[in-house]
Specification:
Layout: E1 5-8, H1 18-30, E2 35-38, H2 51-56, E3 66-69, E4 72-73, H3 79-92, E5 97-102, H4 108-114, H5 121-137, E6 141-144, E7 149-153, E8 167-170, H6 174-183, E9 186-189, H7 194-210, E10 219-228, H8 232-247, H9 255-258, E11 260-262, H10 264-276, E12 281-286, H11 293-310
Parallel strand pairs: 1-2, 1-12, 2-3, 3-5, 4-5, 5-8, 8-9, 9-10, 10-11, 10-12
Antiparallel strand pairs: 6-7
């Protein structure tokens, strides 16, 4: 089994007071999680912070934990502004940013709000990745594309990580897998089962081969919606209740396929299937009530990760 790395996504059913949230992030670093992640929407079913702003507040309260977006909806923003904001965050954190980007689209109203045609979101993200990398890398920079066109301009300071922070592509569609293979430094999935994960890993390898691109250093990651409980039934009830609220749809039919649910031992078994499918990096998002979050993360760090490593 390859070495398994693990990050933490502390998103919760209701927003925590800032002081409580910051204390949790500090504990995540102390428990040994490699990274902490923020989800991203401009407008959503429930309140949510802007991801890069939120991650920037962690810089002064942590020492080494990496800061990731899972995933930043790049098509909603100007790529030049996104390049500037991410370069700034990478500088202020001394090179700790992982820039996870995705297409989104499950909430059409936020695209209307931002004045971006929903049907263009995939093409915009594909181009914007190249725009961001160009601005991170070049001084001065020039780019001529469908949505972005400029000559001889520079965004400074450049990111600490050169030629730029790693970009992980989020998504499960074929277009997302092609984008990951051709443009990504990694891929992060969510709401897929292990069999589909294995098929997706193979698809990325095949597409990268066709493009003549090496996947050395490429990361296969998975955002795991995990609920640890005294038994499977109680854990499942919590998982369904809270995710149905978060996404404003019934997650009951999805629990058996996509949930990491049950006792710690049962969760290890379910996560191991993803490892066998090619996953080497988990971003753990405990699906639980706020007052249970710290206990869940401590159990993940103390029981689940050592068990995965021992296998």
């Amino acid at each position: 089994m390859p070495s398994i790395r693990c990050g933490a996504s502390p998103s919760a059913p209701t927003l925590r007071p800032p002081a409580e949230h910051f204390r949790l992030v500090q504990r995540l670093e102390a428990w040994g999680f490699e990274s902490v992640w923020a989800g991203d929407h401009v407008s959503f079913h429930n309140p949510i912070h802007e991801s890069l702003t939120l991650l920037s507040t962690y810089v002064g309260i942590t020492d080494h934990i990496k800061l990731g977006t899972a995933v930043y909806l790049l098509g909603l923003r100007s790529p030049a502004v996104a390049a500037k904001a991410t370069a700034t965050l990478d500088v202020l954190s001394d090179g700790r940013l992982i820039f996870g980007v995705g297409v989104g689209g499950e909430n059409p109203k936020e695209w209307e709000l931002c004045g971006v045609p929903l049907r263009e979101r995939g093409a915009r993200v594909t181009e914007a990745i190249d725009v961001v990398r160009t601005l991170w890398r070049d001084t001065p920079a020039t780019f001529h594309g469908r949505f972005t066109d400029f000559e001889q301009v520079s965004i400074d300071p450049k990111p600490v990580q050169r030629p730029g922070p790693p970009i992980w592509i989020g998504g499960r569609s074929d277009a997302a897998l092609v984008r990951a293979a051709r443009q990504g430094d990694g891929w992060i999935s969510y709401v897929v089962h292990a069999e589909r994960y294995a098929q997706s890993v193979q698809r990325i390898r095949e597409e990268a081969g066709r493009a003549g691109r090496s996947l050395d250093g490429f990361v296969n990651a998975h955002l795991a919606f995990i609920t640890i409980g005294p038994d499977h039934e109680q854990a499942r009830n919590t998982w369904v209740r809270l995710l149905s609220k978060r996404y404003a749809q019934d997650f009951g039919p999805l629990a058996g396929k996509y949930g990491i649910i049950g006792t710690a031992a049962q969760c290890v078994d379910q996560l191991s299937r993803f490892v066998d499918a090619g996953c080497t990096y988990f971003v753990m998002n405990p699906i639980c009530d706020n007052d249970e979050t710290e206990r869940q993360f401590e159990q993940i760090a103390g029981e689940i990760l050592p068990a995965l490593a021992s296998r």
